[in-house]
Write a structure and sequence with these properties.
single chain, mainly alpha
C-alpha cells in the first residue's frame, strides 16, 4: 500500500507544479499585457503633449522673430524721423560736424594768414577825441502864479415864513385830521406848539391819532 501511495503523491505534486506553472505563465502574460497597455497609454498621452510643446516653441520663436523684426523696423523709422527733425532744426549729426571741422581745417591751412594791424593804428583807433559837452539849456522862466479865483459869497435866500394855518406841515397830521382840527377850533400851528388850556382840551379829541404825542414837538420845530 505504501508503494502505491507514493506514486499518487508524485502525480499530485507534478500536477500542482504544472498548474502553478500554468497560472504563473498566465500571470506573467497578464502583467506583460498590462505593461504593454500602459506603455501604449503613456505614448498616447505623451505624444499630444510633445506635439503641443513643440507647437508652443515654434509659435514662441515665430512671435519673437516677428517682434524683433517689428522692433528693428520701428527703430529705423525713429532714426529717420530723428534725422529729418534735426535737419529741419539745422542741427547736424556728429559725423557731419566732424566732416565740417576737417574741411574747415584744410581750408584754413591753405588760406594765407592775415597781417596783424600795426599797434600805432590800433592806438589811433582806440584814442578818440572826447566829444565836447553841450552847454545846459537855460531853464524856462518860472511862470507867474495864477491869480487866485475870487470866490463869490453864497447868496442866502430868505426863507419864506411857514404858513402856520397849514396844519399838514406838522409831521403826523394828514389833510383829513387837519380839517377836523380846524373844525374843532385848532386853526394855527402855534396852538399845537404852545397850546392853551382851552386848546389842550380841544387836542385831547385827537389823542387816538397815530403820533399824537409828537404833535407838539413837531409843531415847535416849525414855529
Amino acid at each position: 500500500m505504501a508503494k502505491k501511495a507514493k506514486p499518487n503523491v508524485d502525480k499530485i505534486v507534478k500536477k500542482v507544479n504544472k498548474e502553478f506553472e500554468k497560472t504563473s505563465s498566465q500571470i506573467e502574460s497578464l502583467i506583460s499585457d498590462a505593461l504593454k497597455q500602459f506603455d501604449s497609454l503613456q505614448h498616447q498621452v505623451q505624444d499630444p503633449i510633445r506635439k503641443l510643446l513643440k507647437e508652443v516653441d515654434e509659435l514662441r520663436e515665430r512671435e519673437m522673430k516677428r517682434f524683433n523684426d517689428e522692433f528693428e523696423r520701428r527703430m529705423e523709422e525713429f532714426h529717420e524721423l530723428q534725422s529729418s527733425v534735426l535737419e529741419r532744426l539745422g542741427v547736424a549729426s556728429k559725423e557731419d560736424i566732424r566732416k565740417a571741422e576737417k574741411e574747415s581745417k584744410k581750408e584754413s591751412s591753405k588760406a594765407p594768414a592775415k597781417k596783424a594791424a600795426s599797434p600805432t593804428k590800433k592806438a589811433a583807433a582806440t584814442t578818440k577825441k572826447p566829444a565836447a559837452k553841450k552847454a545846459p539849456a537855460p531853464k524856462a522862466a518860472a511862470k507867474a502864479p495864477a491869480k487866485a479865483a475870487v470866490k463869490k459869497a453864497p447868496v442866502v435866500k430868505a426863507k419864506k415864513p411857514a404858513d402856520k394855518s397849514n396844519l399838514t406841515l406838522v409831521k403826523g397830521i394828514g389833510p383829513a385830521t387837519a380839517e377836523k382840527m380846524k373844525a374843532a377850533g385848532i386853526t394855527s400851528i402855534d396852538q399845537i406848539a404852545n397850546p392853551s388850556p382851552d386848546d389842550q382840551e380841544k387836542l385831547k379829541a385827537f389823542s387816538k391819532v397815530k403820533g399824537f404825542s409828537q404833535f407838539t414837538a413837531e409843531a415847535k420845530k416849525i414855529s
